[in-house]
UniProtKB/TrEMBL annotation:
Stated name of the protein: 6-phosphofructokinase
GO molecular function: 6-phosphofructokinase activity; AMP binding; ATP binding; fructose-6-phosphate binding; identical protein binding; metal ion binding; monosaccharide binding
UniProt entry keywords in alphabetical sequence: ATP-binding, Cytoplasm, Glycolysis, Kinase, Magnesium, Metal-binding, Nucleotide-binding, Transferase
BP GO terms, sorted: canonical glycolysis; fructose 1,6-bisphosphate metabolic process; fructose 6-phosphate metabolic process
Localization annotation: Cytoplasm
Domain Phosphofructokinase: 73-183
Enzyme Commission no: 2.7.1.11
SUPFAM superfamilies: Phosphofructokinase
Major enzyme class: transferase
GO cellular component entries: 6-phosphofructokinase complex
Catalytic activity: beta-D-fructose 6-phosphate + ATP = beta-D-fructose 1,6-bisphosphate + ADP + H(+)
Record bears the keyword Metal-binding: yes
């Protein structure tokens, strides 16, 4: 159900609970930015079959189901464990699957990326069920000295190619993201 509520600073906010469908006319009339963005969106052909949210920026964000069929992505965690790693892994896996991607776990971070083999396997919707409250990271986390050198990164690239992975998501801190930047 759509509801309009008045918030401070006279801003109108659209609330919805997992609605998929068209923009109701009274909402469109009260929010010209949202109506205009929807009408001019390159995704307007998906109207009626996509989820939409009016954000703080007053932009319309549209994510169509199966928007990226044939793409694949690997997700790994690196460095020390931190709060929120499992929820981040779950969100990435589920959004990837929703968008039509194959999603792969890369166990033990950069070490798993270099080792390949059994360290890389496909994730499913069910494989991330019930992990939000678990501590640590379900896919493990490890640093890798081999990855710092070019031959190690070439092995990692070969392993990604063998599994058909063309995108990776690195969850970690500064050192982890420095490694991802080096890998580009």
């Amino acid at each position: 159900m759509h509801q309009l509520s008045e918030e401070p600073h006279r801003t109108q906010h659209l609330q919805h609970a997992d609605t998929i469908g068209e923009l109701r006319s009274e909402i469109a009339a009260s929010s010209p930015d949202a109506a205009s963005a929807l009408a001019n969106s390159p995704f307007s052909k998906y109207r009626g079959s996509v989820s939409w949210v009016e954000g703080f920026e007053k932009n319309l964000h549209i994510l169509a189901k199966n928007q990226y069929p044939g793409r694949s992505m690997g997700v790994f965690t690196s460095g020390g464990d931190a709060q929120g790693m499992n929820p981040a892994v779950r969100a990435i896996v589920r959004m990837g699957i929703y968008l039509g991607c194959k999603v792969y776990f890369i166990h033990e971070g950069y070490q798993g990326l270099v080792d390949g083999g059994n360290s890389i396997h496909q994730a499913t919707w069910a494989s991330v069920s019930g992990i939000i409250d678990d501590g640590g990271t379900i896919i493990g986390s490890a640093r890798c000295k081999e990855f710092r050198e070019r031959p190690g990164r070439l092995r990692a690239a070969k392993n990604l190619i063998e599994h058909g992975i063309n995108n990776i998501v690195c969850i970690g801190g500064d050192g982890s993201l420095t490694g991802a930047h080096l890998f580009r």
